[in-house]
Amino acid sequence: MATRLKETDAVLLGVGLVGSILGRELTRAGLNVVGLERGGPRHTVPDFQGPQIHDELRYAVRKHLIQDTARETFTFRNHAGQVALPLRRLEGFLPGTGLGGSAVHWNGQTWRFQESDYRMRSLMVERYGEKFLPADATVQDWGVTSKDLEPAYDRFEYLLGICGKAGNLGGNKVAGGNVFEDARAREYPNPPMKEPYGSAMFRKAAEGLGYHPFPSPSANMSRPYTNPEGISLNTCTFCGFCERFGCEHFAKSSPQTVLLPVLLKEPRFELRTGCHVLRINRSGDRATSVTYVDAQGRELEQPARLVVLGAYALNNVRLMLLSRIGAPYDPATGKGVVGRNYAYQTTSGVQVFYDESVNINPFMRSGANGVVIADFVSDNFDHGPLGFAGGGYIGEVMSHGRPIEHHPTPPGTPAWGSAWKKAVARHYNHTAAINVHASSLAVRQNHLDLDPTYRDAWGQPLLRITFEFPENDIRMSAYLTAKAEEIANAMGGKQVAASPRERPYNATVYQSTHNTGGTIMGTDPSTSVVNRYLQSWDVPNLFVIGASNFPQNASYNPTGPVGALAFWAADAIVNRYLKSPGPLA
Amino acid sequence: MKPHDPSRRRLFKAAGATGLAVAVPLPAPAQAPTPTYAFFNAREAAFIEAAVARLIPKDELGPGALEAGVPQFIDRQLAGAWGAGERLYRSGPWRQGTPSQGYQLPFTPAELFRNALRGIDPGFAKMPPEKQDEYLKTLEKEKRDLGGVPSDAFFEALLEATVEGFFADPVYGGNHDMAGWKLIGFPGAYANYYELVDRHNVRFSAPPMSLGAHPMGTK
Q1: Is the ipTM of this complex over 0.95?
Q2: Number of H helices, E strands in chain A
Q3: Cβ atoms within 10 A of the Cβ of B213, count?
Q4: Does the beta carbon of A458 lie under 8 angstroms from any beta carbon of chain B?
Q5: What whole-number distance in Å separates Cα of residue A499 and Cα of residue A477?
Q6: Of the candidates A69, A248, A507, which has its C-beta nearest B88's C-beta?
Q7: Which of A76, A194, A421 is the closest to B101 by Cβ?
Q8: Which one of A21, A315, A399, B198 has the minimum C-beta count within 10 Å?
């Protein structure tokens, strides 16, 4: 029997990026807030300090900052005709665990989605007609516009100190920035990072082909920065240990470096780590409390007037299903909402192999430095003759040269033996990599639900992922990867090797941690889980925030939109919901 | 400094084959790891030493996996938490999946190696190198039954562990003398390239740095 604790104003499920932002905004509004974090407390000092943090085996290969799959994992199948099996180790995507969540081990690539993403269905229909989207596409509008979210993006970027160059200031295009972006109110808080050699070669080649290269927006600092919370960050040193690692230098924005030092001093905020939430309890249309197991294994019930679910996207969906809030999606009938419109990221790559006079120095990199083009992002190009929806950015954004993970060899090289060794030695420092980071269409068959067989360490069903790349995205990847190959061919290498994305989706190969959908936002309760303020349609005192809100996944990395949605929802809670608790129209 | 003296390789093999620790006077700082094993028995060690020497051979470019202490790396990994199934979801039911669903065998890494090694040809270590390569290729390409472990799964685990041991920080017992890093020019735990990153095409030539070599490190 769970011990019932004293009621609080608000409880946060997860103290990562979303939890930290909501914790700050809600306590600032005068609420008492309890933050429940399943993992441990972690701080730049002493947890992320050098030299020990620069340990590829421990962090990048053994994944010590990632969700512990011995206790909790996901099951996976490509289609409903297969039996889903547990991902016994996570390889394809890496949700974090512990204070700060995945925003501790992220790279820091921080983007804004576009109007053509938020209004994808409307604008595609408007431009290409009713029949253009594939019949199985469940693409829909978000219920918000670029203009709605601009102030939230602005706050998020200034909180994190994002480094970049604006390409559209209040409607005026700025050469050298991302001229395809929607209007932003002001310049990025910090200038772009230094440009490594491979990025410079990409820029030259892309410019030569008539594209519009610009520096990738980064949460790795280009100079010392003090954010609006009064917290200071240092300049990034390009150490090459960014994604999968915590930053020792206070140079990568994360809850630890931009918000937690203030939030953890706030008397209205109470952080509880090692607390694994089992479910949200409800009575009628009200969430009444949260049941969790604490670090000692005791079951506790925390009553709260407001519940904010801000875990990793997949775990948001799982907690909604475990709590039986919202109708579970059934792909056979197309009815139900929780687990619907699960999407991923369609990534691919091109390698450029140089002669030995070209030193790429892949180890001198940060998580988010690089040069990209947005000419093929979203609907920035005419899809009419192409016959697919969606797009992606193409760029040279290498983040590291750690040798267990990174030892590129040309196609045809044996996997071992002396020839392998010679090829690794020959190409390690003389290979550039071009990434294609592309959208993922929501389709009827791809979805999330509870697994009928496999359970976690607490006895609860695992989340089951059913996913295959839609035909649309395979064609998109072929097109975009060919464009990337053309740029690669102009980069002066000896050999170029392109790998467009192919079926089947293979969960054993790292592609991206950008899992989206499952608790999507919208304007119609029959096709969305939360309204445009991320408030549950069924339980108005529950807000669900994260990439699980995306109705489909877009070309850019999702952390910027997640941060913006967190501020957008916080604003709605503080300025509207608290004044008159109930459904927000 | 001769980091890969052929006479020393023989000592490795002799020691591995008998399971004895051999005290050998060797020149510093390239002192070879002492071939004692916490996990492998003598027969297993003989195979592992011979196999990793084929996966990443010593050649004109420098030391291979054997000289870099990869057998000791794998031994320590299997003897520790990783071998015991750290971070491995171990609940049944156990079913064969598709390649997209990843590892679905019920074995921990330690169990996988122990079972598979029982099924290995005991004469492997004494085969000529070409025969060893042929044998390894059959493990790689076929699903031979090795003590209940499909040989391709064992080969994959062995190759993965060998590459890890060749390139992981030397504090884990492999990458001796940072041989793997020196081969490719990876500087290791070094932490600051701010002044170099925009000096395009610069050749970085400082010696690599291990976690253990750092004054704040683990040694």
Answers
A1: yes
A2: 13, 24
A3: 18
A4: no
A5: 9
A6: A69
A7: A76
A8: B198
